[in-house]
Design a protein that fits this description.
With about 210 residues, this protein is mostly beta strands. The protein has a domain of about 120 residues: Jelly Rolls. Strands 1, 2, 4, 7, 9 and 10 form a 6-stranded antiparallel beta sheet that branches. It has a 4-stranded antiparallel beta sheet with strand order 3-8-5-6, with no helix packed on it. The radius of gyration is 28 Å and the shape is rod-shaped. The termini are far apart.
Length: about 210
């Protein structure tokens, strides 16, 4: 947790502004080559810390997809193919605009047997306004990554062990912390209480 508090309270010694960030990270795990959409659950915002301003979601993802190109009977396989790799990440639930949608064109070499390997990586972040986030429990990030053939290329995912995907996600909660007394104010308050106690003790003594 990072704090950046300013003494905006003036002579009253109260921190009127306390901008803080609470961060959680997790591994995205691995993607299924056929059903790539996954949900990653992270701790939600602790409302006792203060007022939430916004949420920043930062993601890194990669895909290495083994494919088997198809060719008409009696024809040879093409020597190369182009794929669009598409990556999505979104907080659930939230408006569809609060998300990452990235597309990366990839040129893949096709071997003589029609096999190829589509590889891509992504790094991105997006912000979710506090008004779009009303959940009180854990935060869910839904993400997927997949390849689409271009130029009329026909192919199948071969589902071999060469297919891997994964990444990381970091969620940062930006919030205004609860105002707390400055250390000098605490010291003055303690002295005042001790003085009051001392005077009461003197008032009880018999003359």
């Amino acid at each position: 947790m990072n704090d950046a508090c300013s003494s905006a309270g003036g002579d009253n010694g109260v921190r009127g502004v306390c901008a803080s960030v609470e961060t959680f990270s997790a591994s995205l795990g691995t993607f299924d080559p056929y059903y790539s959409e996954r949900d990653q659950v992270l701790p939600g915002f602790d409302a006792t810390l203060g007022t939430l301003n916004s949420i920043t979601v930062s993601t890194r993802a990669f895909l290495s997809e083994a494919v088997q190109v198809q060719a008409a009977s009696g024809t040879s396989f093409p020597s190369a193919g182009t794929f669009n790799v598409i990556y999505n990440a979104q907080v659930i639930p939230s408006p569809v605009t609060d998300r990452s949608v990235l597309t990366q064109p990839v040129s893949t070499t096709i071997a003589a047997d029609g096999t190829g390997l589509v590889t891509a990586s992504f790094t991105d972040s997006f912000t979710v306004p506090s008004a779009d986030y009303s959940a009180s429990g854990p935060l869910t990030i839904r993400y997927d990554i997949f390849a689409l053939p271009q130029g009329g290329l026909s192919f199948l995912f071969d589902g071999s062990s060469r297919t891997t995907a994964g990444g990381t996600v970091t969620v940062s909660y930006d919030y205004a912390g609860v105002a707390v007394p400055e250390p000098t104010s605490l010291a003055l308050l303690t002295m005042a209480l001790l003085l009051v106690r001392h005077r009461r003790g003197q008032a009880r003594r018999p003359v």
